[in-house]
């Protein structure tokens, strides 16, 4: 069957009252970015639906991208039919023959926005039900939880028929909850934290610390590829590379071993806050899970968070590792996260870090360093790029990693 449009139904937008139009506008923009590789599409937002006219584009490829866009409850591939009941019958039967095996249960569900059409909602349901009973006597009418629902949309320009409805990603359109920055490592947890931030409507930008020559191009490519895995949920994600070599070398040379990790993390947080303010972000996100490693005990969090008053949000804070791994597998970041490219969080990790660092001692050791100068030089060396939801980009990154392996 050649489909003519994808009909998108909104998710939590229905609860947003006076802000509904702003949410629909944001979702439309996100869908447009996610589908930028399909130039023939026409996207038409309405109050209760988003209509994506295919104009010859591949419906399967378009729907594969739509599955990842937050703010969508479900969507259906539909066929536009002229307002002639003989043609409506013909297309309805084709759709049912393709999607309703022998003995299936079904119902007809009509939505009529064109009230000038000769049949009202009940009339259309009865008309098509009677026709299908005669054309497909093997089918069983079932109003609750049928195997197949024939959806009918009567609009001014045509009648739209569909039998396949897919669940969307749910959540809120990215950007409706403001902007945040995510401290992206190369591990399992931070991409999952990013996924959850996106799902709640936060427009995240990635902040990744790298320390050449201690960290290789492999690690940087891996971080970009992890970003590319999340980019389809929004269309594109801003990626910020922060040079961290000088800071790590300075901290290692001037701070007692047990406090290396704590003070390194304090520098990371200072830099992330400065970048967040430059980029207009309102909060910092990270992948910390309480008690998972030395830097994630409550005592360590107190000592590290001491350098900022910006909100720090930890979406996976109370999840155990197996729960986080399950989500990482679902969003296809797990296999990439476990690739053995060391990031700057691990290369200078002391063998016995303090799990309960003393805040006064932390401040004292740090006071011996040129904190302001180190931060300013790191900020001066940042590099920025936009990573889009593009198969071409993802393939290039995969090729790079394979070559470096």
UniProtKB/TrEMBL annotation:
Q: Where does ATP bind?
A: 183-184, 208-209, 265, 287, 296
Give the range the annotation lists for the signal sequence.
none
**Which SUPFAM superfamilies does the entry mention?**
Adenine nucleotide alpha hydrolases-like (SSF52402), THUMP domain-like (SSF143437)
Protein role: Catalyzes the ATP-dependent transfer of a sulfur to tRNA to produce 4-thiouridine in position 8 of tRNAs, which functions as a near-UV photosensor. Also catalyzes the transfer of sulfur to the sulfur carrier protein ThiS, forming ThiS-thiocarboxylate. This is a step in the synthesis of thiazole, in the thiamine biosynthesis pathway. The sulfur is donated as persulfide by IscS.
In its UniProt entry, the species of origin is given as Lacticaseibacillus nasuensis JCM 17158
As one GO molecular function, the record gives: tRNA binding
A single cellular component GO annotation: cytosol
Which pathway does this chain act in? Cofactor biosynthesis; thiamine diphosphate biosynthesis
Family from the record: Belongs to the ThiI family.
Q: Which UniProt keywords apply?
A: ATP-binding, Cytoplasm, Nucleotide-binding, RNA-binding, Thiamine biosynthesis, Transferase, tRNA-binding
Question: Where found in the cell?
Answer: Cytoplasm
THUMP domain location = 60-165
What protein name is recorded for this chain? Probable tRNA sulfurtransferase
HAMAP family recorded for this chain?
Answer: ThiI
Q: Which NCBIfam families match?
A: tRNA uracil 4-sulfurtransferase ThiI
Q: Which reaction does it catalyse?
A: [ThiI sulfur-carrier protein]-S-sulfanyl-L-cysteine + a uridine in tRNA + 2 reduced [2Fe-2S]-[ferredoxin] + ATP + H(+) = [ThiI sulfur-carrier protein]-L-cysteine + a 4-thiouridine in tRNA + 2 oxidized [2Fe-2S]-[ferredoxin] + AMP + diphosphate; [ThiS sulfur-carrier protein]-C-terminal Gly-Gly-AMP + S-sulfanyl-L-cysteinyl-[cysteine desulfurase] + AH2 = [ThiS sulfur-carrier protein]-C-terminal-Gly-aminoethanethioate + L-cysteinyl-[cysteine desulfurase] + A + AMP + 2 H(+)
GO annotation (BP), single = tRNA 4-thiouridine biosynthesis
Q: What is its EC number?
A: 2.8.1.4
Primary location: cytoplasm
CDD domains the record matches? PPase_ThiI (cd01712), THUMP_ThiI (cd11716)
